[in-house]
Design a protein that fits this description.
68% of the residues lie in helices and 0% in strands. The chain has 192 residues and is an all-alpha fold. Helix 2 packs across helix 4, helix 4 packs antiparallel against helix 5 and helix 7 packs antiparallel against helix 8.
């Protein structure tokens, strides 16, 4: 119990002070790879419970859970950068950060996954959610379209590519979405 309480306490203290560097996390965690992944998974489960039941919980309760997950992710990156589970953890943390409206953290984790694990099957999903972060949180529609285009050009035969194409169509022509021809060149689609 003491091994779990101290890192959680440290995460709360770090988040209340504006976060901490990866070096600081490295000094404080003293947890095994499994303990870090288990700690992340525990907070991820709590996050999902709140996120999927908005009528039962206040969505503001997601922020401290995101901060707690970040503690474990940052410690895992610092102490176990070659972990076989790190890509999964990064993708989950990136999507959770998007869902809690923390765009900087979402982009950070998803980009780290793409850069560090370029052969992971999670790269297309991460690329899509980077575009989604730009679109929804940063309101950078051109940046989102660019991110989606890179995804469908790099991974054209994935489901994420198809979702990215639909997102570009929605951005380019939000009112007339149904009238856009599927064969239309997405690079030149403009609002009519």
């Amino acid at each position: 119990m003491k091994k779990i309480f101290l890192p959680i306490f440290a995460a709360v203290v770090l988040s209340s002070c504006g976060g901490g560097s990866t070096e600081k996390v490295r000094e404080e965690s003293n947890l095994s790879e499994k303990e870090l992944i288990d700690g992340f998974s525990k907070f991820k489960s709590q996050f999902e419970e709140i996120f999927t039941n908005p009528s039962k919980y206040k969505q503001e309760d997601l922020v401290p859970l995101t901060d707690s997950m970040a503690y474990f992710v940052d410690a895992l990156i610092a102490e176990h950068p070659k972990s076989s589970e790190l890509a999964n953890v990064l993708c989950s943390a990136g999507v959770s950060s998007l869902n809690s409206r923390d765009g900087k953290r979402s982009e950070k984790y998803l980009t780290y996954l793409i850069d560090s694990f370029p052969n992971s099957s999670l790269v297309p999903k991460s690329m899509y959610f980077i575009g989604r972060t730009k679109e929804v949180l940063f309101k950078d529609l051109e940046g989102a379209k660019d991110a989606y285009k890179v995804l469908y050009r790099t991974f054209p035969k994935t489901n994420w590519s198809e979702i990215a194409k639909s997102s570009i169509k929605q951005i380019s022509n939000p009112i007339l979405l149904e009238s856009v021809d599927d064969n239309e060149d997405l690079d030149t689609a403009e609002i009519k």
